[in-house]
Design a protein that fits this description.
Oligomer: single chain
CATH topology: Gyrase A, domain 2
Number of helices: 5
CATH architecture: 2-Layer Sandwich
Distance between the termini: 22 Å
Radius of gyration: 18 Å
Length: 253
């Protein structure tokens, strides 16, 4: 991002920029990143991000009850009627999944094969409401196919803070194919979940194929939210973990 300088010396890497120590620690932690299509979702007030060619984040969907979808209607559905590998036992696990505060279910997605469906909880939620829960299809992309994520402030178009995603050539092709299929569906099956370390950190929806190798998630982020999300995504794209050593705050004169 603008104002950031990265230098290396031996096995050490120094990042200079407008970051807090907490954000730098998140950036250095090696995460497990997967992009999965949403087959079904239940939410009680979560915002729904929107990515696009110049995509958009929270479009302010707030439901008063549960939002459900038939996994068999997914573009990943198999001839047997369920989504690829979506067994009765997995559907039962999704039904029984409790994402209430104090419960941790990250292991459910982390332990799942990327090529198989999984269940997961959102990592964020509205005050007084439990996090959304998701039934997710096989992974569209993994962290190795995301080059980087950057928090940017679009002052030109007035879009505000957003997260810009950059994919490898192979990742861009997979993402274009996947978003083309997702865009044909109704909510929530036009969404893909961005899953870091087993938790859904964002679930944007698409209304068209994203074909230029990049995507933007925007529409309601604060600066801190955009920077935190970018750091989480970058942690999942790192080829090796970085050990956080120290941070020094410098005041401009």
């Amino acid at each position: 991002m603008t104002g950031t300088r990265v230098t290396t010396e031996g096995t050490s890497l120094t990042v200079v920029g407008p970051y807090t120590a907490e954000q730098l620690e998140k950036l250095g932690a090696l995460g497990q990143l997967r992009f999965r299509p949403v087959l079904a979702q239940e939410t009680a007030g979560a915002r729904t991000p929107t990515p696009g060619p110049s995509a958009s984040h929270a479009q302010g969907r707030a439901t008063t009850g549960a939002l459900r979808a038939d996994p068999a209607a997914s573009p990943w559905a198999s001839a047997s009627g369920g989504a690829d590998g979506t067994s009765a036992s997995l559907l039962a696990k999704y039904t029984a999944l409790d994402c209430s505060a104090g419960h941790t279910y990250s292991e459910a997605e982390q332990d799942a094969n990327p090529d198989s469906p999984a269940v997961a909880c959102a990592t964020e939620h509205s005050a007084g409401q439990p996090p959304s829960k998701y039934l997710l299809g096989p992974a569209i992309l993994t962290g190795s196919e995301l080059t980087s994520a950057k928090a940017v402030n679009d002052t030109t178009n007035g879009a505000g803070w957003m997260v810009q995603l950059y994919f490898t050539a192979a990742g861009a092709k997979k993402f274009a194919d996947a978003t083309g299929r997702l865009a044909q569906n109704q909510m929530p099956q036009n969404e893909f979940a961005i899953v870091v370390d087993g938790g859904v950190v964002s679930a944007p929806y698409v209304n068209q194929a994203l074909t230029d190798g990049t995507a933007q998630i925007s529409g309601g982020f604060t600066e801190k939210e955009a920077r935190d999300l970018a750091a989480k995504l970058n942690s999942g794209a790192l080829p090796t973990p970085l050990r956080f050593a120290s941070a020094t705050h410098v005041t401009k004169r």
